[in-house]
Design goal:
By secondary structure, the protein is mainly α. The chain is built from 15 helices and no strands.
C-alpha cells in the first residue's frame, strides 16, 4: 500500500513544519484568522486524520487469525503491548519533573497539563479499542463493517457527548479522553472515529491482491471522498434547517465527514503520485514506518525535554516568518537524519553490541528518571 505510506510521509512533513512554525513564529505574523494562515490551519487539521486512518488501515494486515476466525495469542500479545507502549510514551513525553522523586512537588496546574490527551494517548487507547473489536469479530471483513459503524457512531454522537459535560462526573484522567473542555487536543470523540474508518478502508483493501491495491485506492478514493463531502453537506443542512443551530467545528460531524472526504481524495492523489515517484517508494515506506520516532524526535527538538532545551526555549513565538521557515526545514532534515542514523546503527549492531545498545538506552532513561542531570 505505497499510496498510504506516501500519504503518511507527506503528513509527517506537514506536521513537523506546522509544529515548528506554530511554536516559533511571532503571533503577529502567523494569524490563523487571516489568509493564507487560515488555509494553513485547515491543512494542519488534516494531518491527524491522515495518521489515524493510515494506522487503522495497516493494522488490519497485522491481525493474524486462526482457522475459526479468532485472533492468535501472539497477535493479541503484540497488539496489546504496542497499544500500551504508545499510551505509556504519550504520558512519558509529558513527564512534568526532572526526577521521579520530584513528582510530589509538581503543581496542580502542571498535572492538569500532563493529563491532557495528545495524539499518542489517543492512538494507544484507540488501538486497544480496535483490538477489543477485533477479538469479538471472527473475520476482517466483519471487523471492517463493525469499524465503519463504530466510526459513524462516534462522529454522530460527538456533539451530544460534549454537550453532556461529562468532565463534571468523571476523574480528570478519564474525562480528558472524551472532552475538549480541559485542554485535550485529541479526545476519543471524535478522533478515534478516524482510526476506525481507516480499519474499514484496510478491510476493503484486503480483498484485493497486493499488486492491485494502489489502483483501487486511485480508482475509489475520489468517488468515496465526494460521497463523504455530500454527507457533510447533508449533515450541515440537517442541523441548520431542522434544528436551527450550528455545531462548533471541532465536534461537528460535518467537519469530520468533510475531513474524511478530503483524506480519501488525498489518498487517491498519492496513489497517482507514487507511480511517478516509484524509484523513491522504498524511502517513503521506510520513513512512514518510523512515524512514532519522527513524532517524538521533532517534538524534542522543538520543545526539549525535562533534561534538555529545545528551540522553543529560545525562540518561542518570537521569530520572523523567514527564520521560522529556516528552522522548520532544519527540524525536518534533522529529524529524518536522526531516524536514518539510528536505524543504521541498530542494523549494524549484532549480538553483544545490540544488547549493549538496547540496555544502554534503557539504563540512561532510568538514570535520568531517578537521578536527573
Amino acid at each position: 500500500m505505497y499510496a498510504l505510506d506516501f500519504a503518511r510521509f507527506i503528513a509527517m512533513i506537514m506536521m513537523m513544519q506546522g509544529h515548528t512554525l506554530d511554536a516559533l513564529v511571532s503571533s503577529s505574523v502567523l494569524d490563523p484568522s487571516l489568509f493564507p494562515w487560515n488555509i494553513w490551519t485547515y491543512i494542519r487539521g488534516l494531518t491527524a486524520p491522515v495518521f489515524l486512518m493510515v494506522s487503522g488501515a495497516v493494522h488490519v494486515f497485522v491481525l493474524k487469525r486462526q482457522g475459526d476466525g479468532s485472533l492468535t495469542n501472539k497477535t493479541i500479545q503484540r497488539r496489546l503491548t504496542w497499544g500500551l507502549t504508545i499510551l505509556g510514551l504519550g504520558y512519558l513525553m509529558m513527564f512534568p519533573a526532572s526526577r521521579i522523586v520530584d513528582l510530589p512537588f509538581v503543581s496542580s496546574k502542571a498535572w492538569h497539563y500532563v493529563l491532557q490527551v495528545n495524539i499518542l494517548q489517543l492512538t494507544g487507547v484507540s488501538l486497544l479499542l480496535l483490538l477489543l473489536t477485533a477479538f469479538f469479530t471472527k473475520s476482517n471483513a466483519r471487523l471492517g463493517l463493525t469499524s465503519f459503524m463504530i466510526a459513524l457512531s462516534i462522529f454522530l454522537a460527538s456533539p451530544a457527548i460534549h454537550a453532556l459535560s461529562l468532565q463534571g462526573y468523571m476523574p480528570l484522567l478519564l474525562s480528558n479522553y472524551v472532552s475538549f473542555a480541559n485542554g485535550s487536543l485529541f479526545p476519543i470523540f471524535p478522533y478515534s472515529g478516524f482510526l476506525f474508518m481507516g480499519v474499514a478502508i484496510g478491510a476493503f483493501l484486503e480483498q484485493y491482491r497486493a499488486s492491485e491495491r494502489n489502483h483501487i485506492i486511485k480508482k475509489y478514493g475520489v468517488g468515496y471522498g465526494l460521497f463523504f463531502w455530500i454527507a457533510a453537506a447533508v449533515n450541515e443542512g440537517f442541523f441548520q434547517i431542522v434544528l436551527g443551530e450550528q455545531i462548533p467545528g471541532q465536534m461537528s460531524p460535518t467537519m469530520m465527514f468533510s475531513r474524511i472526504g478530503f483524506v480519501l481524495m488525498f489518498f487517491s492523489l498519492c496513489a497517482v503520485a507514487i507511480e511517478k515517484l516509484s524509484q523513491w517508494k522504498e524511502h517513503f515506506v521506510f520513513f512512514s514506518g518510523k512515524s512514532l520516532g519522527i513524532y517524538m524526535i521533532h517534538l524534542f527538538l522543538i520543545y526539549g525535554t525535562p533534561w534538555s532545551f529545545g528551540l522553543a526555549s529560545f525562540y518561542a513565538k518570537q521569530t520572523s516568518l523567514e527564520f521560522g521557515i529556516t528552522l522548520a526545514i532544519a527540524v525536518i532534515f534533522s529529524t529524518l537524519g536522526l531516524i536514518a542514523l539510528g536505524t543504521h546503527i541498530k542494523e549494524r549492531a549484532t549480538g553483544r553490541s545490540e544488547k549493549v545498545l538496547k540496555y544502554g538506552i534503557r539504563t540512561a532513561i532510568t538514570y535520568l528518571l531517578l537521578v536527573g542531570l
